[in-house]
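Technical note accompanying the year-one report. For the benefit of new consortium partners, we illustrate the data format agreed upon in the data management plan: each record pairs a sequence with a structure-token string. No post-processing was applied to the example shown here.
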Amino acid sequence: MMAVDPLNTQMNMPLSNEGKAVVISSLWNVTIQPGEFARTPSKQATYFRYYEEQCRKFLYNCTKSEQKVPTKTHRHIVLLAQLLQCAAPGPTLRKIDVLEAFRDTIPVSVPPATDELLYTTIDFVTRLLLMLDIGPGLPGDRTINQLPVPWEDDSTLPNFIANQFDGTKELVVPVRLERIFIAPNIELIGDIQIVWTDNLADHLRMSEDDTKVAIYSHSQFLKMNRDNPLFPPGFVDETLRTLALLLPRRDTTVSKWFRKQQGLEELRNRIDSEAASERRLKAVERQISKFVFWHDRLVILKQAFDESQPKNLRQWWNDKRNPVQWYNFWFAVALIVGLTVFFGIASTVEGAIQVYKAYHPSPSP
């Protein structure tokens, strides 16, 4: 009896656990047993939430433009993803070469798919393969209003990615990444809102006058792509180190804050449960010079964090960036409160004595 292909289902239908295992194996050559996806939540839950969202958005765009969808099943997605992976290593394929190879692979449609739709399809599958927000999207689709990232026709995919993450350090600014520089403190002390993003290109990007910063939490995706030749050497490991820097799970403050974030209904399956790292970076690993690809964004974020000033008592209490200033401030507060209480008690006692004397005057000599 011929085995049923778990990927031979329409894109608008959810994948079975067997289908998810095949997708992982086909895209990144990583073996995961189907039973892993039966756990609640599975380690890959955040990625497949993203996968299904991208499928729905792609189908919506095709329906909106009244064009026939060239990729109808999950198997078509995998076939195109494997064409994209042929771009590295060795002989590289330009985007236009991928289009021609894709045209020869997909079933003939009536009317034939236009180049524009095929390019849109290539962008869609590239997003699933690399979690990079390539090509045009729907209004409001981007977390922090980033402009679309175009992959030009005459560029290869490795060159496109290398240009996005070229490791150029434009900011030569000495900053210290102390232990206090963690995600909960960035929100509480720095008054900078953490925004969780599915777009790897948005990681650590600040927006809205430096009042928001995006964090890419998909650590499981990164671990599956450690050996992916499409990413620059060292890029994936450095990205994981930025998560270890900002989200060290063994820090009690991080652990409590991270659990609260995961419990928010609007963030369900949007934060990788493994994003909070079991590993805390050593002092030498927190040196800004150790970061290449994310150097400038870390510098900008740290500067915004350092320049922020406490605006309320809660921020003053938690802001220990300058221990001397912190102790002086709270010593002054304690002194003022103590003196106020002391004089208040003294005044009360004095008043009570005067009232007592008024009702119990001293006997005349």
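Partners are asked to follow this layout when depositing records. Residues 323-359 form the longest helix (37 residues).
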